[in-house]
């Protein structure tokens, strides 16, 4: 426990020091080295302990989720440092603090501590999105702040209701309690809704793809790779404390298919990737709801790595050409960008042997047939939506590598490791299924989707209204399960 | 009884704030709405810790029951966070107003 806390303190301390002193780049590297050392020291995990001791200490534990988040955040940080090597120290320091926040969220097992971590990550993300100062990015950042603020206010009310009824905020204590009282159930509904806003769940988090799309290259990779996962971890903790599995499955299916509809028809490359993040959250939520933690966690980490890779490549493509729409970017992209997009697409549509294959197939191993059908439907939709990136895969010579090798290596390594974790993958059926789904998806894209369709964006007022309406529905759902 | 009326006031504040956020088109009003709503959430937590006839949770104030100190400690953190959020949002809004010469959500969203 002390090693993990030292790593987090190192991250936050060196980040803040960098803000004060300058020299952010060197301090960021130092923090990264400290973080990796700390992970190596506590690596297999540590039992739950209270930071600050009894009676009001904060519960932390080094469980599987902590391991996953650390294993995701540290490689992403390395890739982002290398990618943004030319940027100033302020930028590196802010990213260091943001990564430290993610690490803290990974080990935290206390509802209020998770609230602080979520809020801190929104504040830092907003600064990083707005930092370059384009008007579109400023507006996306302000919207992010407003809507995340609504979500977090709801979360605080939920937290109050839970604390008032149970007298505790620690996940482990809450998981041992009964779940009968209506006010407790409504509180849990509020907690779920508030977290869902941060995690980007469909209709609560539809504002999130524009924010991810408007951010600078490295920041989009971090937002989609690590910050959204913080929301997923919080949802996982809530699911651990209270029996809300049916609600999570419902949210997962709605999020997956809703995100895919937007992803299929979106033309702006980076916003398209943001919508695809929303759709991929569906897998993680379904996994959480079905109780297959290992598969959900594996897909969370895998998605963080390959979506980071996709966003880095897409950002470099947009910077190289100065245009954002996918048809305008056709042809003549530098080869690292093309290779990154190709690897990322290969992984996200779930083709073997990369990371997406293990994650998607593992979700459907022990699940009932309707869940398997939902997962296959989502995979089909992913394949349809990513088919349009095939246009871009014509390389030319030249171009810089940036953070590409680390994330590409991560995608391949994680895919291989998946075969050890889930030995069932070595049979013929999953391979046949993956290839036929992707081929069918490509056929649908080629022959059925010939006309461009514009789907209306959700305006800010409606976004706030939909958050409130969804909170109401979620609370009712938790009340009656 | 005081605790209940505190909670009712908190819920009323939050409803008012959130309603302002939905109904007003000006971003500054939306920010104020958010601030009122988060003030409601803070009041809610403080009202939770209340027990009738209890003393403030300060060591050395004498015998008798004290209020639950934990929500009050949480509230301190939440107040700091809300302050930071409001300050950051206002800073962004100032820059945005200088650039676009409007605070109307509809106009800000065109050509976003």
Descriptive terms for the model:
heterodimer; A: 481 residues; mainly alpha; two-stranded parallel sheet; 74% helix; B: 112 residues; elongated
Q: Output the radius of gyration of chain A.
A: 21 Å
Shape of chain A: globular
Counting DSSP H or I runs of 4 or more residues, the number of helices of chain B is 4
Tell me the radius of gyration of chain B: 19 Å
Tertiary shape of chain B: elongated
Quaternary organisation: heterodimer
Order of helices and strands of chain A: HHEEHHHHHHHHHHHEHHHEHHH
Question: What characterizes the major β-sheet of chain A?
Answer: 2 strands, antiparallel
Strand content of chain A: under 5%
Report the count of strand segments of chain B. Answer: 0
Mean pLDDT of chain B: 87
**Helix/sheet category of chain B:** mainly alpha
User: Greatest interface and its residue counts?
Assistant: A-B, 38 and 41 residues
Regions of chain B with pLDDT < 50 over 5+ consecutive residues? Answer: none
Structure description:
The complex is a heterodimer of chains A (481) and B (112). With 481 residues, chain A is mainly alpha-helical. Helix content of chain A is 74%, strand content 3%. Chain A has a two-stranded antiparallel sheet. In chain A, strand 1 and strand 2 (58-62) form a beta hairpin. In chain A, helix 2 packs parallel to helix 4 (89-107) and helix 12 runs antiparallel to helix 13 (293-321). Chain A is globular, with a radius of gyration of 21 Å. In chain B, helix 1 packs antiparallel against helix 2 (27-49). Chain B has helices at residues 2-23, 27-49, 69-100, 105-109. With 112 residues, chain B is mainly α. The interface between A and B is large, with 38 and 41 residues.
């Amino acid at each position: 426990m002390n090693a993990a806390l030292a790593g987090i303190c190192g991250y936050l301390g060196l980040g803040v020091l960098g803000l004060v002193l300058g020299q952010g780049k060197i301090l960021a590297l130092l923090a990264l080295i400290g973080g990796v050392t700390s992970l190596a020291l506590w690596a297999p995990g540590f039992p739950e302990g209270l930071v600050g001791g009894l009676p009001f200490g904060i519960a932390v534990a080094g469980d599987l989720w902590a391991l996953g988040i650390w294993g995701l955040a540290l490689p992403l940080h390395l890739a982002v440092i290398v990618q943004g090597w030319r940027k100033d120290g302020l930028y590196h320091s802010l990213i260091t603090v943001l990564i430290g926040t993610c690490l803290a969220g990974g080990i935290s097992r206390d509802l209020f501590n998770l609230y602080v971590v979520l809020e801190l990550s929104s504040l830092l993300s907003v600064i990083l999105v707005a930092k370059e100062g384009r008007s579109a990015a400023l507006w996306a950042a302000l919207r992010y702040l407003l809507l995340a603020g609504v979500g977090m206010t709801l979360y605080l009310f939920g937290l109050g209701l839970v604390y008032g009824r149970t007298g505790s905020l620690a996940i482990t204590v809450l998981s041992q309690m009964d779940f009968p009282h209506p006010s407790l159930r409504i509180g849990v509904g509020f907690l779920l809704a508030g977290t869902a806003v941060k995690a980007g769940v469909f209709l609560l988090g539809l504002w999130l793809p524009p924010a991810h799309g408007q951010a600078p290259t490295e920041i989009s990779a971090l937002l989609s790779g690590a910050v959204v996962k913080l929301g997923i971890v919080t949802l996982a903790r809530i699911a651990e404390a209270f029996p809300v599995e049916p609600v999570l499955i419902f949210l997962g299916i709605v999020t997956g298919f809703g995100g895919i509809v937007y992803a299929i028809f979106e033309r702006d490359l980076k916003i398209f990737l943001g919508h695809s993040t929303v759709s991929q959250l569906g897998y993680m939520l379904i996994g959480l709801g079905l109780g297959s933690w290992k598969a959900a966690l594996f897909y969370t980490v895998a998605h963080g790595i390959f979506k980071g890779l996709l966003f880095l490549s897409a950002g470099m493509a947009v910077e190289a050409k100065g245009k954002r729409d996918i048809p305008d970017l056709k042809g003549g992209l530098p080869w690292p960008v093309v290779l990154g997009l190709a690897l990322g697409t290969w992984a996200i549509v779930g083709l073997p042997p990369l990371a997406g294959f293990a994650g998607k197939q593992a979700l459907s191993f022990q699940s009932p047939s309707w869940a398997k059908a939902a997962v296959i439907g989502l995979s089909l939709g992913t394949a349809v939506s990513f088919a349009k990136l095939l246009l871009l895969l014509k390389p030319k010579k030249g171009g810089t590598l940036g953070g590409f090798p680390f994330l590409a290596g991560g995608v391949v390594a994680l895919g291989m490791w998946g075969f050890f974790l889930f030995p069932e993958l070595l049979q013929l059926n999953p391979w046949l299924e993956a290839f036929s789904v992707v081929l069918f998806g490509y056929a649908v894209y080629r022959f059925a989707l010939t006309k461009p369709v514009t789907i209306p964006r959700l305006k800010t007022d409606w976004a706030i209204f939909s958050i409130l309406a969804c909170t109401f529905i979620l609370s009712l759902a938790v009340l009656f399960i | 009884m005081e605790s209940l009326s505190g909670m009712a006031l908190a819920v009323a504040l939050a409803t008012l704030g959130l309603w302002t956020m939905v109904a007003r088109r000006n971003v500054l009003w939306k920010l104020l709405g958010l601030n009122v709503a988060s003030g409601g959430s803070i009041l809610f937590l403080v009202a939770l810790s209340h027990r009738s006839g209890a003393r403030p949770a300060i060591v050395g104030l004498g015998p008798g029951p004290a209020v639950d100190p934990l929500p009050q400690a949480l509230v301190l953190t939440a107040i700091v966070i809300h302050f930071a959020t409001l300050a950051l949002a206002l800073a962004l809004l100032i820059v945005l107003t200088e650039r676009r010469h409007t605070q109307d959500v509809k106009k800000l969203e065109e050509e976003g």
